[in-house]
Amino acid sequence: MASEELIAALKAADAVQFGEFELSHGGTSEYYVDKYLFETDPTCLDLIAEAFAERVADSDAKLAGVALGGVPLVAATALKAKRPYVIARKQQKEYGTANLVEGHLEEGEEVIVVEDIATTGQSAVDAVEALRDAGAVVNRALIVVDREEGGRENLAEAGVEMEALVTASELLADAEE
Distance between CA atoms of 113 and 141, rounded to whole angstroms? Predict the structure, then answer.
């Protein structure tokens, strides 16, 4: 899938917005990519799942979605790729099994993280740590949008290669014209 097709779909879903926005890490931005708008849009979700499925085709790794935004992405990708997945929580539940990783995961199993947007990449790094603590081997993360604000570098420090479908530079290229 060409990133141009995904960029057009993200914009058609109104997922790319301009103004002043506070980001989860506390910073501000003149643009915002609304993951809930693109994750609930069937065209965007299908394009993303297809692209992610193509990227995991050469591997037998299980998939892991980062709660909450990565869950619809990993579920759709798992269906396209015909493979199981787990969910990495941001924090443990205080009831039931109190797991940080939900789903069946074997010790030593290779897992590829699926995430929506990487700004600093901290959510993905936290998920990687939770998965590793649960016994997984994690070396790759698939991201829809790389905001190019340190996420790739932070994941690299954690020993994880980040693959983004679209970068902020690509997404905003025509906004600067």
Answer: 4
Q: Could you report the per-residue pLDDT of 56-84, keeping only the tens digit for each?
A: 999 999 999 999 999 999 999 999 999 99
| Cα–Cα distance, 16 to 173 (Å, whole number) | 12
Token pair 């939900």 is found at 102
- Is the backbone peptide bond immediately before 68 cis, with ω within 30 degrees of 0? yes
Provide φ and ψ at 56, rounded to 5°.
-100, 0
CA dist 111 and 67 (Å) reads 15
* Helix, strand or coil, per DSSP, at residue 28: strand
Angle at 139 between CA 136 and CA 145, to 5 degrees: 115
Give SS3 for 60. Answer: coil
Query: Two tokens at 168?
Result: 């902020």
- Note whether 122 and 154 are within 8 A (CB): yes
Does the reported pTM lie above 0.85? yes
Per residue in 146-156, pLDDT tens? 999 999 999 99
* Under 8 Å between Cβ of 31 and 119: no
- Kindly state the greatest CA–CA separation across the chain: 53
